[in-house]
Amino acid sequence: MKLVKGDLLALGKANEFDIIVQGCNCWNAMGSGIAKSIREQFPDAWLADQETLAGDRNKLGCYTIGMAGRLVVINAYTQYNTAKFQGEDVFEYKSFELILANYPNVLVNIESVFQ
Question: Which CATH superfamily is domain 16-114 in?
Answer without folding.
Answer: Leucine Aminopeptidase, subunit E, domain 1 (3.40.220.10)
